[in-house]
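Dear U.,

Please find below the material for section 3 of the report. The protein was modelled together with flavin-adenine dinucleotide; I have listed the sequence and SMILES used, followed by the predicted complex structure.
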Amino acid sequence: MSFAVPAEFTSRVRLEEPLSRHTSWHVGGPADVFFMPRDRADLIAFLEELPTDVPLLWLGLGSNMLVRDGGVRGVVISTRDALTALERREERGVYAEAGVPCAKLARACARWDLGPAEFFTGIPGTVGGALAMNAGAFQGETWRQVRWVETVDRHGVVRERDADQFHVSYRHVEAPEEGEWFLAATFHFAGGSSDEATRALLEKRRQTQPIGEWNCGSVFTNPPGDHAARLIESAGLKGLRVGGAVVSDRHANFIINEGEASARDIETLIETVQREVEQRHGARLVPECRIVGEAA
Ligand SMILES: Cc1cc2nc3c(=O)[nH]c(=O)nc-3n(C[C@H](O)[C@H](O)[C@H](O)COP(=O)(O)OP(=O)(O)OC[C@H]3O[C@@H](n4cnc5c(N)ncnc54)[C@H](O)[C@@H]3O)c2cc1C
């Protein structure tokens, strides 16, 4: 590690923290420095003190991240258990900090009879991750519900931004400025909630996805007018394996770590699937998961 952690935080950061402990694929080498702030004020104090040339990576629940085996240089900030405020604001608004799990947001909305928020139920990430990815499922999409967000930059400066300042599309979000991360969002839900829709959604996931196995959900985005899973399956790639990583038999757009996979295995399998699908169908699949860090 070639930088100093601000003195008042040295006893609280973890050095060389294996990121395999913090990703749903259970792979990933160490972060030089891993910081779990106590709350928003603690996070801002840390950012104010941290030298501005130290690379930063934000991590929610790591459910859409492939961290390479060599790990991540610089600081990883984990919002999990840190930014957890969740409250109803006015009749149809909900304020949620970035570390709130999407499932918890969905349950609160169900309690308050606010929707559509059912789609958040089965997304195993945080609000921050959902904002960064424009996570969505079954016709629902995060940013359709966002009114404004709070961001923080690397100096610890907090800003409020209206949703319309962001360019948002399918699993893609462009911020008006580089170098800002999400602290919180206020959502607006025009309708009521439906227990039946939540149950149907969870049942659909149970039937079609490899629940309980180590994966990151859909590996590739769907190309316009088609489905990545269909292209992969029709190229005969279900069950294709590299080391401990395998294309799921249940859902072709999922790659499973059977227990011993390295990030290298998974990345090689991703590249192999891309190549095979391109040869067979002429379409280049684009990874939805974020691939970060250094090779071992
Ligand atoms: C079983 C399974 C099912 C899934 N189903 C779906 C689905 O139906 N629909 C869907 O869209 N996704 C799905 N996913 C993928 C994933 O859950 C979502 O993309 C989720 O929004 C990621 O949230 P996270 O907190 O885990 O983010 P992480 O994986 O930790 O991070 C993802 C990206 O967001 C960035 N990020 C995280 N927090 C912040 C922040 N506060 N500010 C700025 N950037 C931040 C990270 O730097 C990274 O680039 C699934 C994953 C799994 C494992």
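For the text of the report, you could mention the following: Residues 24, 57-65, 79, 98, 122-126, 128-130, 132-133, 135-137, 181-182, 215-217, 290 surround flavin-adenine dinucleotide (CB under 6 Å).

Regards,
Y.
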